[in-house]
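Section: Multi-chain targets

For targets with more than one molecule, the full set of components is provided together so that the structure can be written out for the assembly as a whole rather than chain by chain. Components appear in the order listed by the source. The example entry contains two components.
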Amino acid sequence: VQLLDSGGGLVQPGGSLRLSCAASGFTFNFYAMTWVRQAPGKGLEWVASISASGGSTFYADSVKGRFTISRDNNKDTLFLRMSGLRAGDTAIYYCAKDDLAARPSHFDSWGQGTLVTVSS
Amino acid sequence: DIQLTQSPTSLSASAGDRVTITCRASQSIGNYLNWYQQKPGKAPKLLIFRASSLESGVSSRFSGSGSGTDFSLTISGLRPEDFATYYCQQSYNIALTFGGGTKVEIK
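Its structure, encoded as tokens over all components, is:
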């Protein structure tokens, strides 16, 4: 299993960014996928999850209405579209593979992370 | 949201020691509790899922127990590569949450 996160960078407050996670080594459309973030020097925070089919999505209250999780099962890729970014969104963002299909549970593989910095 | 409180927040131990970390949930979560290890600059790694199931490939020095609101992770015979930060995570509620972490340092 390999998950390759990309798309992070420096963005101004109020700006937008799209993260990607390219998956390989497993049957991508069998498993739910999740984004987890970690602010500098802080703990882990669940951000959003999507079911294997893409038909169900789940969001943390802190990002609901600003972030959109999606997936392309034909290209084995997970996305996180982030808009209305705030300083508090500054973090390393990890994609993670779930062990279930329908909803997030526990994460048995993780990407290397991509750093998002929100600053003027 | 379900709050997870880990204790201690940090501990110092020596190689060979037996270490126990606890995680308390703000409400009953059955056995929907998972444990991860994270080393500096690295992504987390799943150790234990559903409170006591050892993830494939993880050393049997790691074990988990508990149900309801009180859970623990035990490392038997601490090795140098075990010095890291450990997080619990609940999957009972769809709004997943993590504990604050426990840093295990070398004494």
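The longest strand of chain B covers residues 19-25.
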